[in-house]
Design a protein that fits this description.
The complex is a heterodimer of chains A (186) and B (47).
Chain A lengths: L6 H7 L5 H17 L5 H20 L8 H34 L4 H8 L4 H8 L7 H11 L13 H14 L15
Helix pairs in contact in A: 2-3, 2-4
Chain B lengths: L5 H10 L4 H16 L5 H6 L1
Classes of the chains: A mainly alpha (186), B mainly alpha (47).
């Protein structure tokens, strides 16, 4: 399961598959607008992403598309989820930056420790344009003393929640129960 | 002109089906964006 939008995978697929990825793509487009001013390579990425966004909208949200209540609800949930992810990445970025400041380290210094030489790639990681590897996050956790729950998104998309709930119910094990708090998106 | 996130407007239309004035204005807005080829904000303002 993806916990973060992987722009390269979506561009490789040549298609946006669902509402959640569509909402994530819209957020990514806004991030890329800012980041592409510093990194011209991202202008091409943004253009390609906008092509996919437009294609998805034409297929699913044009004036003559069949839009029912279910689809509207799915879209609302996807918007909430994508916004949660955006906030999570924003808070993670601020947390990392403040810890780096306390240690008198730059973003590039952290990149050197993680083994990422490119300044722009480090910026992509921090801003959530490219996903951190688990190795990166473990190093950040140890080095900057940031809790893993602030580094790794632990909330689940609605479709995943439904699948897990159904699997747990099938097990019929009274000891195995999930409270509402176990799912961030109720 | 390319219009991204047209979905937001389509959703607004579907959720306000009864508001014929709003629905019509949204269609006009979408049409304006799609038929005009504004290159910058100045052109957009001058209409």
């Amino acid at each position: 399961m993806k916990t973060q939008f992987d722009i390269e995978k979506v561009l490789d697929n040549g298609k946006i598959q669902n509402e959640l990825d569509f909402e994530r793509a819209l957020i990514m487009d806004r991030k890329l607008r800012v980041l592409s001013q510093e990194n011209p390579k991202l202008k091409v990425v943004r253009k390609n992403l906008r092509d996919l966004i437009e294609d998805y909208e034409t297929r699913n949200w044009s004036a003559d598309s069949r839009i029912n209540e279910k689809k509207l609800r799915e879209s609302d949930l996807a918007e909430i989820m994508a916004e949660k992810e955006r906030l999570f990445i924003y808070n993670r970025k601020e947390l990392i930056k403040s810890k780096l400041k306390k240690l008198n380290l730059s973003q590039q210094d952290l990149g050197a420790i993680l083994g990422h030489k490119s300044k722009s790639y480090m910026s992509e990681l921090i801003n959530g344009v490219s996903p951190f590897s688990l190795r990166d996050l473990v190093i950040i956790n140890r080095l900057l003393k940031i809790d893993l729950t602030d580094l790794v998104p632990t909330f689940l998309p609605h479709t995943e929640q439904v699948k897990i709930k159904s699997s747990i119910e099938k097990l019929e094990n009274p000891k195995l129960k999930l409270s509402k708090d176990d799912f961030t998106l109720a | 002109m390319r219009l991204i996130n047209k979905k937001a407007l389509e959703k607004l239309k579907r959720k306000n089906k009864g508001n014929a004035v709003l629905v019509k204005e949204i269609d006009v807005l979408i049409g304006d964006f799609e038929t005009n080829d504004w290159k910058n904000q100045t052109q957009l303002k001058s209409g």
